[in-house]
Amino acid sequence: MTRVRRWEPCVYHRGTHADAFIKDYLAQQDRSILLIAGAGFDPRSTRVADTFPEQARKKTRAILIREERPNPDDILMKRAVKNRDALVAAFPQSEEHEIHIFASDNAVVGARGSARLMRSIPLDGVTDIFVDISALSIGVAFPIIKHFHEVLKQNPQIQANLHVVSCDSPVIDGTITSAPSDAAAPIHGFRGGWGLDEKSRAAILWMPQLSRGKGAILGRIFQMLRNVQPDTVVCPILPFPSSRPRRPDELIEEFAEELEGAWSVDVRDLVYADEKSPLDLYRTILRIDDARRRVFESVGGSQIILSPLGSKALSLGALMASLERDFTILHVESIGYTVTEGQTESIDTSEELVHIWLDGDAYGKTDAKEGTPK
After folding, report:
1. For residue 70, what is the DSSP state?
2. Are 371 and 151 in contact (CB under 8 A)?
3. Contact assessment for residue 173 and residue 310, using Cβ atoms and an 8 Å cutoff
4. Could you tell me the pTM of the whole model?
5. What are the backbone dihedrals phi and psi of residue 168, each rounded to the nearest 5 degrees, phi first?
6. Which residues, including other chains, have CB under 8 Å from residue 86's CB and lie 6 or more apart?
7. pLDDT tens-digit series, residues 59-93
């Protein structure tokens, strides 16, 4: 039996519809806004700020996050400072906070640091929380979003709306290359059933989102999974339809060795999700989970592991599925980034703003235990 879905239907906008909604919505005089955004080298850092009406920017409390990693590139540092200055100028009530992604012993601490920072922010009088993930890594962005989602679910007296926004640009995503750290691990807050005795016999299905240049990262995650369960089934996620029609074919070519070799992926195991629609991937993952629960219920159960990489829009679909069903998200944190020279100086023409109204007035009251609308 198909389970009730938290975000079915969902308030979602993209492109010009997202721009128009945000401008009209924030033009209302009674909006008290908290904005969480990245202030990094990514040119998308300032995209959402440009969409906010001037009057809304003046009264918005903006928490600007600088992700600090070891030995950053000087050029990227200069771009980050430029974007930070633009955001500070746009939001008079802004605060800059540094989040160190790695501790001195190279342990990954960025996710916990970001969650700790969010817990220190009072929500008294706030009507709308906007989390802009355009220039945040998922290791930082996902714990932030989950924090506010849980706070609103567990404290119905807090009358605030939670919005997630992102400037989605597969072109820019493709020009940014990350250098992975050594170890794969669940993102803080997204451990799911990983490591629990009750899941020790569960059939594992790994759903990695394929993305150009992410072979090393996915290799580390797969090795970790194989050490836990050698019979792990892999269902890679490919973007289709895509802004670049040949992108699915290019990804299949790039990952041919993994697909045909270590992962042993049958063509019927490939998962296609609309590159421009996080809801498409969200529904697909939940549909697969519903089917697997019925099949494996009597033989130890099923465990879905997600590894969202690539476009920001698709990663939001995985985030929503994980928030709803408590899936594990395995991730390899990046120790640094490089960019294709000249490709991240400005927004490309294919970029579009994505807006998801995650919690709040649009869904009525929420059941604090189940997290579903009443």
Report:
1. S
2. no
3. yes
4. 0.94
5. -95, 120
6. 45, 46, 49
7. 999 999 999 999 998 999 999 999 999 999 999 99
